[in-house]
């Protein structure tokens, strides 16, 4: 231990006398080229061996990602749950194609107001782009501004985001207490589950039901919800 030099304690070794930093850089580049060549040769040997063993077989992707060569129906619980969710989400846009639903949605939207705001914002983007040079494009086009104006109106004036609904009796904040089965009327309107909340006011303590609707037509009437209801109604 006592015979170690200072360089043996993690310090960078000194460059041999008469050599400069270029020597170290060249040595590093040579090492990298050698290592790269060695790896490429190893990959080439593995590929050649696989082709010799089964020249007509496809690459073994299953050995890399556990993907089966032949598609099979899901059987485990997580796969079945994902399949059910995927089918449900795939069917949701199909329900938006109801002409009556689309007419009701158009009647709810102040189109003239949306288009005026979009045109005003689009003009601002065009003026900003013109001030930056003749070849500068605006950050947002007119159609983009229409979507932006629609989103602002939907978020600020049409739809109400609900975390915990207020008490219907005294309008005080509520606390989640559990779940309940939907009532016949709630189930008929597409509620799959109902959240139960209790008023935080000690003098009230009334219970508030919060049905989670998935029908876009119902959401046009209730105009409140969280992520699922928000996305369902706005995307429609």
Show the helix and strand layout.
Elements: H1 21-53, H2 62-65, H3 77-95, H4 99-108, H5 111-132, H6 142-158, E1 160-161, E2 174-180, H7 184-188, E3 191-199, E4 207-213, H8 216-222, E5 224-225, H9 227-235
Parallel strand pairs: 1-5
Antiparallel strand pairs: 2-3, 3-4
Family: Belongs to the transglutaminase-like superfamily. PNGase family.
GO molecular function, one term: metal ion binding
InterPro entries: Papain-like_cys_pep_sf, PNGase
How many beta strands in the DSSP annotation?
Answer: 5
Q: Outline, from the CA principal axes?
A: extended
Q: How widely separated are the two ends? A: 76 Å
Please give the count of helices.
9
Oligomer: single chain
Largest sheet: 3 strands, antiparallel
Order of helices and strands: HHHHHHEEHEEHEH
CATH architecture of the domain at 160-227: Single Sheet
CATH topology of the domain at 160-227: N-terminal domain of TfIIb
Pairing-aware structural class of the strands and helices? mainly alpha
Helical content band: 40-55%
Spatial strand arrangement across the major sheet: 2-3-4
**Using only CA atoms, what is the Rg?**
33 Å
How much of the polypeptide forms β-strand, as a percent range? Answer: 5-15%
**CATH hierarchy class name of the domain at 160-227:** Mainly Beta
Mean pLDDT: 83
- Poorly predicted runs are 1-13
